[in-house]
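Quick question: who can interpret this fold?

. . .
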Amino acid sequence: MNRLVHAELIRARASRSTWILAALAPVLCVLWTGLGAALAAMDSPLPLDQRIENVYNMAQQAYLLTLILGVLGMSGEYRHQTITWQFLVSPGRDRVVAAKLAAYGIIGLSVAVISALVTLASGALMLGLGDHPVWTPRVPLVLLGAVLSVTLYGLLGVGIGALVRNQVVAVALALVWFMYADYVLTMLLPGLGRWLPTGAARAVGGMTLHGGGLLPAWGGGLLFAAYVAAAVLAARLITLRRDIT
């Protein structure tokens, strides 16, 4: 099993898309942090402490990159027809899926930690330049929640990539749902938003919205973990039974 995970990490490291997406993640977080800092400086019904915490919650914006990394890592096997060799080398299909999950969990965690550190530094700098406090007691929990949610998105991506074998369709589906569909449903049915994957993930990072609307961090964490577990379990069961030829 360790060798399978190591092989997956080597394969990911050799892919240019892995490096590009991993490098874009902290850049995206810095851009969102700038927006968060600008919003923190504006008049808002939210207390200042919550606005400051929302700035650091922008570390969660790396989620899209780890999600796509996971999707590409799994669906790419079907696109390039390397999945057949994978199963020949390791006939236990569940071990292959588990190795994918472990490898992209490690990659997702690495991207999440780097993005959180970059967000911490850039957020403190931007808040300081705006003569705002740069810290609250909850900032470490906010960053920890962001790291957790971004890592889980990587595992979710692997699940989606296993369920939807066509790489283009899998990436498009992930982008459309997690960038648009969740938000459209939330706007149409505000009470539903907190129960959707994106709403649950935002709650994990401790994001605070005017008027509430999100679950507490622990509730969001459990719900989002349940979504990820359901996708991974479905992917595992389908992969074990599906004809790959």
Notes: The chain has a mean pLDDT of 87. Residues 2-241 form one domain. The CA atoms of residues 9 and 103 lie 6 Å apart.
